Amino acid sequence: ITAMISAGQAYRMNFLRRLNIYKLSLQKVVDNNNLLNINKKIYILNDKKVIVVGAGPSLDKNIDWFCQHKDSFIIVSVGASLPTLLKYNITPDIVVEVHPELDMLATYKKFNKDNLKDIIFLGANQIPKELLEQFNIDNSFIFLTNMIIKEHLGVKTGTSVGNVAIYLSLMFQPKELYFLGIDFALSSEGTTHTDSHAYRKKLDDTTQMDIKQKNYIHEGNLFAVKGNLKESVLTNSLFYKFLEGANNELSLYKNNNIFNLSDGAYIENTTPLKADDVEISSIYDKVNFKQEFKNELENISEHGLNTEDLESINNMIKLLNDYTTTEYNDKDIRKYFNDILINKNLDGAYKELILNFVQMIFHYVDGFLNDESFNFKQRTKHIKNMDKLLYQHFIKLTIDYKKILEDKIK
Q1: Cα atoms found within 13 Å of the Cα of residue 327, Cβ hemisphere only
Q2: Which end of the chain, C or N, has fewer beta carbons within 10 A?
Q3: In sequence order, what are the beta bridge partners of 297?
């Protein structure tokens, strides 16, 4: 715990939001969806060119080229790119979505469902049910982003939906992989996303900062990084976090044919390439491809809860009962949390929830403990009261998590 909370990161997701995400996540399993095993590789794309399309400004810049050659690629799009693609009559073959927020739903509801019905949808188990319902359920596959149950299916998280789309595309072993709109940087005009993106902004370099300060998360603080098609580009700390995530992901794929067509930041282990210089060869039969691809995904998918899953959840509930029925009795809170994190019988999602809880409150506790206006006696008294209060909140959090499990197996 000490190592984690001392990192001083800016946490973008509080523990109450995580509770709701776990509820959504487990529901996707209970609802008998196609649950994708991302630990298994399939080779249906090993003779095809695949293009991962993000919502960076370079998508707009290259849209005419893309319209002309859309049938020469298997198109993997993030959800945020759909407004631009559909506007130009480009229907992606595969759409990837990970965001748990309902505000993304408004974007999807603007589309005619007929435009989405033939798309293969790959969604994280934390996405809202209402978003999943925008797609053809028979063409939809869920991958896990947390470890409540079915850990053997593999878990995939990422710093951005674009990075998750890249990972899933590589899982399908493409002959060549291309990036478009995966910018991780501002355009030369200072825009953050495509013109159709709901959160598009225009920033300038008046708040430019030194790259040594890049860990400070604030979208208005800009700094230069190596460019993909130019010497340097401006990015911000949030985009830089996404860029680092992509670099880490691609460090495992140094021998793959990966080309970056985006006019943004340089991504390690990719080859910079202008769109006009891509060698265009085959035109793919998208109808047959989607059917074959769907069949391959079904072969590596599971459905619902089996006997082993139910037994695992029931065992977890029993363990959680042990943590919620004990009295405080002046416990060493730090040791108590550490015992939870090293308990191999507790699932990863619960440990993540507890760790996030500790990370969130630590900043307040640390400020209090270092406030020199308190004398030692007062501080000792308040520390005991604080420990007890933290323990009570911890018990409530555990009860809430346990209820999620209990509700889903009734």
Answers
A1: 2
A2: C
A3: none
Write out the DSSP string of 198-211. TT--B--GGGB--G
Token reading at 327: 């009295």
Tokens of 367: 């400020």
Is the separation of the CB atoms in 186 and 222 below 8 Å? yes
Measuring CA to CA, which residue among 345, 308, 319 is closest to residue 401?
319
Of 261, 279, 259, 281, the residue nearest 269 (C-alpha): 259
Phi, psi (deg, nearest 5) at residue 282: -75, 155
**Which amino acid makes up residue 305?**
L
Task: Please count the CA atoms within 13 angstroms of the CA of 339 that sit on its side-chain side.
Answer: 9
Dihedral, CA atoms, 401, 404, 407, 410, nearest 10 degrees? -80
Specify the residue for token string 């149950």: 149
What's the token pair of residue 261? 């067509």
- Residue 236's DSSP bridge partners are 222
Q: What is the pLDDT of residues 304-345, one digit of tens each?
A: 888 888 888 888 888 888 877 766 566 677 777 788 888 888
* 263 within 8 A of 187, measured Cβ to Cβ: yes
Check whether 8 has a pLDDT greater than 70. no
Residue 210 has pLDDT above 50, yes or no: no
Print burial letters for 179-196: b (CB count within 10 Å at least 16), e (below 16): bbbbbbbbbeeebbbbeb
Backbone phi and psi for residue 303, each to the nearest 5 degrees, phi listed first: -140, 130
Quote the CA–CA distance of 63 and 196 in Å, as a whole number: 12
Could you tell me the two tokens for 233?
């580009």
Q: How far apart are CA 396 and CA 339, in angstroms?
A: 18
The H-or-E segment that residue 104 falls in is helix 103-109
Tokens of 35: 């649950």
Whether 122 and 168 have beta carbons less than 8 Å apart is answered as: yes
For residue 388, the model assigns a pLDDT of: 78
Distance CA 309, CA 405 (A): 11
pLDDT per residue over 229-274, tens digit each? Answer: 999 999 988 899 999 999 998 998 888 899 999 999 999 999 999 9
Q: Is 203 helix (H, G, I), strand (E, B) or coil?
A: coil
3 state SS of 35? strand
